[in-house]
Amino acid sequence: MRMVPLMLLALAAYAVVAVSGETLLSAAVVAVALPSGSVWTFDVADLILAFGLVLLFVEILKATRTSVAAALDHGLSMLICVAALLGFLLVPALGTSDFFLLFLMTLIDVVAGFTVSLMGARRDIGYGGGFGDSVNRD
Questions:
Q1: Is residue 137's pLDDT more than 70?
Q2: 137 within some domain
């Protein structure tokens, strides 16, 4: 489970709900009257986006690991990102702004994962000293 990209859960949830019927995505989960007099409505699509944000946070925390499982997780995250882009472009039910935002979350997951891993690897290599050091030997 450590190497399974969690963003897949949010993408799959959105895809299942979107394919089952577009009206379900806009179904209100909560409607709250605000002091301003406005009514704030939180629908199913918003709930899935919020779930995706939480999963993105966990994925960024997972990116701090350096292991074979982490490398596999990064590779799978990239495949999921490409699949999300293709779904957005080719599947009519997924061609929405909400799904595009989920795609952007997967893209951020990929970029952040590789960036955090590279910075960690660079730091680990830097502690070794020796090869590649630019020391003035005058």
A1: no
A2: no
Contact yes or no for 3/69 (Cβ under 8 A): yes
**How many separate domains does the chain show?**
1
Assess whether pLDDT exceeds 90 at residue 94.
Answer: yes
Q: What is the pLDDT of residues 36-52, one digit of tens each?
A: 999 999 999 999 999 99
Q: What is the CA radius of gyration of the chain?
A: 20
Structural domain harbouring 81? 7-127
Integer CA distances (angstroms), 107 to 37, 56, 78, in order: 37, 10, 8
Q: What is the mean pLDDT of the chain?
A: 86
Whether this prediction's pTM lies above 0.90 is answered by no
Phi then psi for residue 81, to 5 deg, are -65, -45
Query: What are the C-alpha distances in Å from 52 to residues 12, 121, 133?
Result: 11, 27, 42
Q: Which one-letter amino acid corresponds to residue 43?
A: D
Tell me the C-alpha distance between 123 and 127, whole Å: 7
Q: Which residue has the tokens 């960036």?
A: 115
Nearest Cα residue to 93 out of 18, 17, 16: 18
- Spatial distance between the Cα atoms of 75 and 69, rounded to a whole number of angstroms: 10
